[in-house]
What we know:
Layout: H1 2-15, E1 23-31, E2 34-35, E3 47-49, E4 53-56, E5 61-66, E6 71-74, E7 79-87, E8 94-108, H2 111-115, E9 120-124, E10 127-131, E11 135-140, E12 146-151, E13 166-170, E14 173-177, E15 182-186, E16 196-197, H3 200-210, H4 218-228, H5 239-251, H6 258-265, H7 269-282, H8 286-294, H9 300-307, E17 309-314, H10 317-321, E18 327-341, E19 344-355, E20 360-371, E21 377-386, E22 401-407, E23 413-415, E24 435-449, E25 460-470, E26 477-488, E27 491-492
Parallel strand pairs: 8-9
Antiparallel strand pairs: 1-3, 1-5, 2-4, 4-7, 5-6, 6-8, 7-8, 8-11, 9-10, 10-13, 11-12, 12-15, 13-14, 15-16, 17-24, 18-19, 18-26, 18-27, 19-20, 20-21, 22-23, 22-24, 24-25, 25-26
Helix pairs in contact: 4-5, 5-9, 6-7
Amino acid sequence: MKKLLALILTLFFISNSVADEKIIGAITLSIGKITNQKGEVLKAGDKIFFGDEITSDGKSKSQIIFLDETVLTIGEKTSITIDEFVFNPSTLDGSFLATLNEGSVKVLSGLINQKNPEKLEVKTAAGTIGSRGTEFQAIIDEEENAQVLLIGPGEDNTLGLRPGVVEVANELGSVILDTPFAFTQLALNQIPTPPVEITQEQLQQFQNFLDVKANLEVQDVESVIKEGLFDDQQISGNEIIGEIITTALNLSDGGLTFDQIAEVLGVDVIDIIGEEGQTEFENESGENQIAMANAEGGDGLAYILRYGGTNLGQTTYGQFQGITSGTYTYTGNNINMAATKGTGSGTFNGTTTVNFASQTINNTYSGTLSLDGNANVDFNYSFTTDYSGGAPSTTLWGNNNGIFSINNSNGNTATTTIASDAGFDPTDFTAAAGSYYADAATDFFNVQMNGSPNPSTGSVATIALNVSDYNDDATDTENTIDGQRGGIMPSRD
Length: 493
């Protein structure tokens, strides 16, 4: 996320031809009312200057990225002053000093802290907080006392960082926080308390300061998303936007469709899910669109919006062969099938499990369908692909297929011959013969998700099913239905 925001910030300054050295950062997200010392209301994309005092109202939240990629997340009813910011992008030398007057702020250290571990400091009335390359949060209470939390690795560490060190000090003494979720209190005229592991009640208090989403109505969420996108590039990876989308999905009765989300974002559906995704989306019911957005095997659209990613191309045999244990399971449920020729419809479920120890891909397809006005039939078919002997450089695309027949009266399935084979007989798949011809496939892509805990190899799959029957002369397909679900992220074991 930081790399993406830094890129956006750089482009922002370039596009505006700004050479003023006093500009030190930009607002990347503004929820509610965010103002500076002049009383100016700040929105996403507004510049931050040396000496600015940033203030948030109730039910407000903001995110600022500085030129060195330091990120401040400001909670509700917060005031923070940027006292000093010096940064040389060539040498990475610099210093960052801010004063937290009230409220809460989360600090994710940037390049200054990497080069100069002693040069990032947040002052409070009760003492100072020095970051040594990590992520921490501080809360100031009504008595001007400070509570400080070191955020460690794991799901609560937004970028999977090492714990690092935070030093909390005043004129009476200091303590070091070097354990994930270590907590200390800093009171006026008192030595900082010894570090302890934070209680669940205290942790909830920290989270409440930054979790404004829980207080938003659906319409508020929609306006927040619009305001929060100051650059289209953020659509492909912004942690907070992803979180807000998740909230919007949860707050809207059952979720939002891709159409609704696109409208909220002020973009086209194709900008969110791509050309192939849009084609798939157009064949889906509103219910299925919601399921796709909420995701199967992950957080779906919200996941992509949160992390962003780079398509590294189709997965090869060698990439799967290089993993020696565990499984990936990809699941797509209630996937719509629409007629692409003639008449027909259906739905299907697909489950694909890659077993790295046995080097096999196990696939199960089941569902209900009908072609050419016949009654609906239920079907179930499983097949296994052995990828142990494949050439390492060859892609798995098109090589994990199951070709089978479906009896059009009772749904019984049987392995059959692929249509391109010399022994293929289309008369087996006419109305008279009583069978449909089915082609099932799961294909894999490598996607590097920015900041995600998921590894890149095979992190996304497409599950697809095509079913046809032939005309009475067995010379051409008469009815064909297709369905697919793309962008499925695996559950891992």
